[in-house]
Amino acid sequence: MKIFRGRGLQIYTWLVIAWLVVPIAVMVLFGFNDTKGRYNTAFQGFTLKWYGKLFEIGDLTEALVNSLLIAVLTMVIAGVLGSLIGLALGRYRFRGAGAMNVMMFAAISCAEIVMGASLLSLFVTLAVPLGFWTIVISHVMFSISFVAITVRARVMTLDASLEEAARDLGAGTWTTFRLVTLPMIFPGVMAGSMLAFALSIDDFVITNFNSGGTVTFPLWIWGATRVGIPPQVNVMGTLIFAVGLLIAVGNAVVARRRR
């Protein structure tokens, strides 16, 4: 019975892994599809030509650039603001800290359609033109909580005596933060910032509400599904996945060397 349970758990685990990997494998495969037309319909042979024609579709390239710029801006802005919130929640006790914690978790659990609609209502009420910057603001709003919670968890594990020792040795508040606190919380800051980047670059629902005339990579793909997906989309998706995979592997290697 125990053997059956163990094998059953292993089979279930591999099925879940296959469920996650198969769509990615199909995307990678169709990036090499030697299709005769502009759109991927069936695999017709192996070719590398689409990697050479990656930026051939101008509006697709523009959409990818928009997504990357928005994701980088979101990562930086949400990374800074979320890290400061996480540091405050993890280190200090102040009036309203409990309410702030609840608000952070509420933002994480909130459905994207609710946040997207509420932000759209806000922009319309304030007569803010929809476009690139409203997407950035929207992405910062829904990703800042993820950064704050990640940094907060890191801060709560720190030894406060190290900061006290720095102050005893004559370091000021800024020097203590720069030389002691920031290096200790930096893994949490980076993890939260990268999470904000990942959430931003593939967001569709909130972006669709607040994009105006700006088209991002997910929005372009959604529009293209009515006529067909060109192979360049699969190539771009493959490259994005490869970069993310390299970052994850590099982080794992660095973490192992530090042990």
UniProtKB/TrEMBL annotation:
Keywords: Cell membrane, Membrane, Transmembrane, Transmembrane helix, Transport
Predominant location: membrane
Protein name: ABC transporter permease
Source lineage: Bacteria, Bacillati, Actinomycetota, Actinomycetes, Streptosporangiales
PANTHER family reported in the protein's UniProt record: PUTRESCINE TRANSPORT SYSTEM PERMEASE PROTEIN POTI
Location within or outside the cell: Cell membrane
Pfam families in the cross-refs: BPD_transp_1
InterPro entries with a match to the protein in the record: Bact_Polyamine_Transport (IPR051789), MetI-like (IPR000515), MetI-like_sf (IPR035906)
